Amino acid sequence: MLVLTRQVDQSVMIGHEVEMKVVDIRGDKVRLGFLAPKEIEIDRREVFELKRHNRQQSAAGQPPQALSPQEKEQMDQFLRAAIDEAKKGLSEGGLPIGSVLVRNGQIIGRGHNRRVQNGDPMAHAEIDCLSNAGRQKTYADTVLYSTLMPCYLCTGAAVQFGVPKVIVGESANFPGGEAKWGKSPAFMRANGIEVIDLHDAECVEMMKNFVKEHPELWNEDIGK
To answer: Which residues pair with 144 in a beta bridge?
Structure first.
């Protein structure tokens, strides 16, 4: 094992193509960013082990390991709360995008897109949620849920505050800040955030219908 001492913004090269950079140091936690070609997978150790196990299961003709019922129930519960927020936004004449911030199994902030309602271009769902949660000493133990993959504005907020995990309802209608442009890696993942896409059918349909029925509001929201 090679042991190195690095400071913030200093990097380590792994081979010729993978760069590991120290993004932030907070107490006993170190946030690392990785730059690598898109064909190279970079995962947390536990995610890597689960993927490897599932590949072995698949090769053996067995079903992949799924989330535990408790994990799935928790995710469904908090996604449902985000969907309820999205529906509030829709009922107010705004965009159906909702978000909740969770700590230790409890919702500490809720919000939905209020750009139209408030005439505020910054009032995206995740920003509204974080604002409603108020000041936090740390976000290192939180999970941010959103019905739609966050845009660069909102992914930037997650990176800025050190949110370690973002769980989204869907990204089919909008890849957001996780879109890959050329060789540039997905923004949140590149900054050490675990991103989980639940591919929720209700979220997909709700956003798909809105984009179809209100293209001008949608284009305004994403800056087109």
So the answer is: 101, 166
Q: Is position 126 annotated as part of the catalytic site? A: yes
**Per-residue pLDDT at 219:** 92
Can you tell me the mean pLDDT for 207-222?
Answer: 94
Token pair for residue 195?
A: 């991103």
Mean of the pLDDT values across residues 120-135?
A: 97
**In the predicted model, is pLDDT for residue 156 greater than 90?**
yes
**3-class secondary-structure state, position 161:** helix
81 and 99 Cβ atoms separated by less than 8 Å: no
State the catalytic residue, choosing from 85, 126, 170, 178.
126
Of 131, 94, 132, residue with least CA distance to 113: 94
H-helix or E-strand containing 83? helix 69-91
Contact 125, 154 (CB under 8 A): yes
CA 19 to chain centre: 22
Dist. CA 222–CA 148, nearest whole Å:
12
